[in-house]
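re: ur question from earlier - yeah i can do the single chain one, its not a big deal. heres the input i used so u can compare w yours
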Amino acid sequence: MIRNCLISDAQAICDIYNHYIQNTVITFEESPLVTKDIAERIKTVTEKYPWLVYDINGEIMGYAYAGEFKSRCAYRYTLETSVYLSSEHTSKGIGTELYKALIDKCRQIGIHSLIGIIAVPNKQSITLHRKFGFNFIGRLNETGYKFNKWIDVEYWQLML
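and the output i got, formated as tokens:
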């Protein structure tokens, strides 16, 4: 079931996210986080924006959230979206369900535009964004450097 994220979900979210930090270029963070870090992020994001988890019998299989795109106040109707799944629960439709629920929540709170920022290559994320009608906006070449290689980033946008 999809539900709002709780601070008590921080450890499970930390475990999911640390997999991506340590093993992929999907996130540009390079050092594993601790539960306290994630708990603080949950607290900050959920004060204003949606953070959802996919929970089956107390097991968090994935999460999605929308957060501030830029700090200047004129950006207040545009949010950046993120979705992460447990490595054991990919390709089961969970990401699609989470993203649909997140987009719906963003509409409900009056958001005008969503931005997906994708480190490429990432076929699964591009497919997910296309499925929901996000449009490719542009590519920033060699924006990040992780695992001794340069990584390009694509911006995808959905107007709500």
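DSSP finds four helices and seven strands in the chain. not sure if urs matches, ping me
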